[in-house]
Every structure is written in C-alpha cells, then in structure tokens.
Amino acid sequence: FCRYYTPSEGVKLFLLDFFEDPDESANAIYTNIKTRIEKAGLSLNNMSCYSADNASVNFGRFHSVYQLLYKENNSVLAVGCPAHMVNNSIKNALAKCRFDVETLVLKTFSHFS
Predict the structure, then answer these.
(1) Contact 17, 46 (CB under 8 A)
(2) Rounded Cα distance, 103 and 100, in Å
(3) How far apart are the C-alpha atoms of 73 and 62, rounded to whole Å?
(4) Staple partner for 64: which of 10, 48, 60, 70, CB 3.0–4.6 Å?
(5) pLDDT for 52 beyond 80
(6) 49-51 and 77-79 as β-strands: parallel, antiparallel, unpaired?
C-alpha cells in the first residue's frame, strides 16, 4: 500500500501493485519495490517507512529488504507486523500468568453457554 498527502487531495491510500514472484530473496523484494515505486512516478527518497512481517529477509540485521532500502534512504523507518507484535506481547504476558488461561477461557465459555 502507498499512503501520501497532497494539499489539494489530502491523505490518499492506494494499492501500488499486486504481483507474485517466486524469488523471495532480499534483493528480489527490494528490486520489486523500487521498480514499482518508480513506475508509479514516486521516489524511494520520499518513503517514510517499510512495514512487513518480521521475517529475517525483511528485517534481518545484515542483509534484508530494510537494510537495502535504508542504504538508499536513511530516514526510512522499520515497522514490524502489528499482528505479530500483538501475538508476541500476549504470548509473553500469558507466560507470566499464575493461572491456566485455557481453563479460564473454557470455564467462562461454559458459564455463558
């Protein structure tokens, strides 16, 4: 998705492109992103953030899509997948609980059924 702002139109959100590519390497993903952004008449220099799932190909420390984007635009921010962040937060919080969460859910469901 691409979100941008113009004074005349305000904030716009649109799907830049949808494609399939069996090559899921960092270089291939980066090239696909760059090609499609430039094809739309936009520039990576105006990109403010990159959001994807938290796989190492996207946000790995040494060679990832984010690292390649950052080399071209050092102001681009990395935004991990919100669903994965919520899942990890809940999983870690539940590990600290002193009661069995599954039992609580089953008893609550049983009570209201």
Answers:
(1) no
(2) 5
(3) 16
(4) 60
(5) yes
(6) parallel
Q: Residue 96 above 80 pLDDT?
A: yes
Q: Is the pLDDT of residue 1 over 80?
A: no
d(CA 110, CA 39): 56
99: three-class secondary structure by DSSP: coil
pLDDT at 35 over 90: yes
Q: Hey, what are 48's tokens?
A: 């403010």
- Please check whether residue 80 is in contact with residue 65, taking contact to mean a CB–CB distance below 8 angstroms: no
User: Please, which residues have CB within 8 angstroms of residue 17's CB and are 6 or more apart in sequence?
Assistant: 36, 39, 40
Residue 43 DSSP code: -
Dig out the tokens for 10 from the structure: 């305000």
Residue with tokens 């953030």: 49
| The pLDDT value given to residue 3 | 80
What gap in Å lies between CA 112 and CA 38, rounded to an integer? 55
Residue 67 tokens read as 């690292």
- Distance CA(78)–CA(70), nearest Å, equals 9
Residue ranges of domains in the chain: 2-80, 82-113
